[in-house]
């Protein structure tokens, strides 16, 4: 990024034990309680995502600046900011005046922006589903776990989880 002042870059993800985060354009689990946490953590902040993630959601997320990364020059949608690279997305978040941008997927966006990330909000899912999209490896020599909250499997959840926050060392 060109500026010395930038928003904090946080990634928020639900990830299986085998780092799977998606299959066929969807998440391979249902986690009602985690969706509530996602909403609370991202509300009022810019959310940065790839086009496929946006299309899997199906709409702009209310109460948040939606920044969509796509190389497709024909892609357009109301109520979102469209950028060509993840780095341009960070610049758009900076221009919005935000102090934190939430990177919400997918796999290639996470991989590209991992070097810029300051914080990871990770829901570790107690499952090993097959999948075609993965979260990058979290190198614990570069990240410190600052909180860990085990979450039992709820009535509307397909697996138990643990919510962990990591900060870059």
From TrEMBL:
Q: In which pathway does it act?
A: Cofactor biosynthesis; tetrahydrofolate biosynthesis; 5,6,7,8-tetrahydrofolate from 7,8-dihydrofolate: step 1/1
Record GO biological process: dihydrofolate metabolic process; folic acid metabolic process; one-carbon metabolic process; tetrahydrofolate biosynthetic process
Q: Which GO terms describe its molecular function?
A: dihydrofolate reductase activity; NADP+ binding
Read off the Gene3D superfamilies from this record: Dihydrofolate Reductase, subunit A (3.40.430.10)
Q: Which GO terms describe its cellular component?
A: cytosol
Catalytic reactions of this protein:
(6S)-5,6,7,8-tetrahydrofolate + NADP(+) = 7,8-dihydrofolate + NADPH + H(+)
Sorted alphabetically, which CDD domains does this protein's record hold? DHFR
Q: What class of enzyme is it?
A: oxidoreductase
Cite the EC number.
1.5.1.3
Q: Name one Pfam family in it.
A: DHFR_1
Keywords per UniProt: NADP, One-carbon metabolism, Oxidoreductase
Q: Which PROSITE patterns match?
A: DHFR_1, DHFR_2
| Domain DHFR: residue ranges | 8-168
UniProt family annotation? Belongs to the dihydrofolate reductase family.
What functional role does this protein have?
Answer: Key enzyme in folate metabolism. Catalyzes an essential reaction for de novo glycine and purine synthesis, and for DNA precursor synthesis.
PANTHER family attached here? Answer: DIHYDROFOLATE REDUCTASE (PTHR48069)
Q: What is this protein called?
A: Dihydrofolate reductase
